[in-house]
Structures are given as C-alpha cells and as structure tokens.
Write a structure and sequence with these properties.
Elements: E1 3-5, H1 13-16, H2 19-22, H3 24-33, H4 40-43, H5 47-57, E2 59-65, H6 79-87, E3 92-97, H7 105-114, E4 120-122, H8 139-148, E5 152-155, H9 169-178, E6 184-187, H10 194-203, E7 207-210, H11 221-229, H12 247-255, H13 261-275
Parallel strand pairs: 1-2, 2-3, 3-4, 4-5, 5-6, 6-7
Length: 281
C-alpha cells in the first residue's frame, strides 16, 4: 500500500538546527513517553536511514512543514524546506510557514504557492508573542489562503502555546466558521481536548484532522479511530511527526485498527493526495 506521511521532520538542514535535533536526548525521551522504541535513524539522525525506513514501510511521499523562527522551538524559515524538497522532489513536498503578524504576510501567500507550497503553516501559539488562532490580526492571511484555495496547517493541540487555552477547539471552530471554504488542518488534532476537537470537525466540513505525534498510543486513541471509521474517513491524514514517532511502527499501528479497506486507503494516501494535489488521479 502506498502511503503519504503528511507531516515529517527528517534530519535535513531545515530541522537539524531546531530543538528537536539539537536536544536529541529530550526528543528520544519524548519518543519513549509515547510508548515507542526509537529506531536507528532516530538515535543517530541519518537521512539515508530515514529514507530506507520509509521505503520499508511503504511511504512514498512526505510533507515537510517549515517553521517561522521563534524562541520556543527554533525554526529556520522556508528556504531550507524548499531546498530539501528540491533535492528530493519525488519524495518530499513543502508546506510554507508564514508569520501572520508580519507586514505584508497576506501578500506572500500567492507567491509561496507559485514556489510550490502545498499548504501554509500557521503556529500563532508559539510566536514570540503567543496568540490564539482566532486573533483578528490573522484574518488577512486566512482570507488570502481561502481566496486561492491553499490549505492551512493550523497548530491546534499539543504544545501549541504557553497553556492549554491555546488548544481550545472553540477558537479553532471560530476560524472554520468565518472561512468556510478554507481547508483547515488541525495539526496535533486538538490533543488533549480530543473529543471537543473531533466535535468541531463533525460540525465543520472544512476541518481536517492530523493528530500525528499524539496519535496513536496516547489517551484519545479510540476517539480518533472511531472518527476515522465514520465522519472523518475522508478528512483524516496519516502523519508520523517523525522523529517523535517511528515510521514503520506507526504504520503497523494504523494497520492494527482493522479499518475498512477504503477508509484505510483514504487515511494513508487518498486524503492527503487530494487535499495537497499530489496525485493527478
């Protein structure tokens, strides 16, 4: 089965200078905390090792999320991500990061799509001055993305801000209501407010779910699985969030849920191919 990993951070220059790899011991402790065993390419970061693990697991494409430089997690901006994708164009595809509070941010959206960005990454909760996803100052960027049909990867869970209020699904829903034609991907799936986040996705057909490193293996797993079986079969995206989750073990865990064949095919490949325009079929 062909698989698209919708969010991965392999050991390429775009990510190696970030806290994820600089503080590798912390990352590996995080891997163990999620119930996984780190693989060789995770213990000693190796792009060739990572690519081999992807090939063995059936992963044929991987989305690389750029990150606006910030004081919490690092971030190297867009150029290193575009460079990595240019070096492996048949495997990697880019998501461009935008600082929604920067002057002229909305005007950058069309240019980024022209450069090949398959989506825009917005992470207001980890900005140098953290903000909520429904901050009115972000509206011009949402409007620009909606106008040209470019999906937004909007961090909506996990360590998305200084406290849990930054993961509030009600704020995510307000954005979905205001921009009904904009595909909004809930990165980290609203975790740990899983049921409320899934409730928003039930109510708002423009909301997609990408829990990546918070699924599977953590509380809320049965809720995500049930959503995949029912109303989110065509809006749930497989993603490992590598290097926080191992590639092959994550794939095998998805396979263990005994999902119907058409649902599994959508979750592992079809949904991402459709949303990000990766497969002309």
């Amino acid at each position: 089965m062909r698989i698209i990993d919708a969010r991965s951070r392999p050991p390429v220059p775009a990510f190696l200078a970030d806290r994820t790899y600089v503080n590798l011991d912390r990352t590996l402790r995080n891997v163990h905390a999620r119930g996984w065993q780190p693989t060789a390419s995770m213990r000693e970061p190796s792009l060739m090792g990572y690519l081999a693990e992807c090939a063995d697991a059936g992963i044929v494409r991987a989305g690389l999320p750029a990150r606006v430089p910030n004081r919490w997690w690092g971030g190297q901006g867009n150029e290193p991500v575009f460079d990595a994708c240019a070096q492996h164009p048949d495997f990697f595809f880019p998501y461009a990061a935008v600082d929604p509070f920067a002057v002229g941010a909305a005007e950058e959206i069309a240019r980024l799509r022209e450069r090949g960005a398959r989506a825009v990454v917005l992470e207001p909760g980890i900005a140098d001055e953290p903000a909520y996803v429904d901050d009115p100052a972000i509206r011009p960027v949402y409007e620009a993305c909606q106008a040209i049909g470019l999906p937004v990867l909007l961090m909506g869970g996990g360590e998305t801000g200084p406290d849990l209020t930054f993961s509030d699904p009600a704020r995510f829903e307000r954005v979905a209501i205001d921009f009904p034609d904009l595909p909004l991907v809930n990165v980290h799936g609203g975790w740990p407010l899983t049921q409320a986040a899934l409730g928003v996705a039930f109510r708002r057909p423009n909301v997609w779910m990408l829990p990546d490193v918070y699924f599977p293996g953590l509380p809320g797993e049965p809720d995500y699985v049930l959503a995949m079986r029912t109303f989110l079969a065509d809006r749930f995206l497989f993603a490992t969030g590598y290097p926080f989750c191992p590639v092959d073990a994550t794939v095998r865990r998805y396979l263990s849920f005994d999902l119907p064949g058409d649902v599994l095919a959508n979750v592992l490949y079809g949904n991402a191919a459709r949303l990000f325009g990766l497969d002309p079929r």
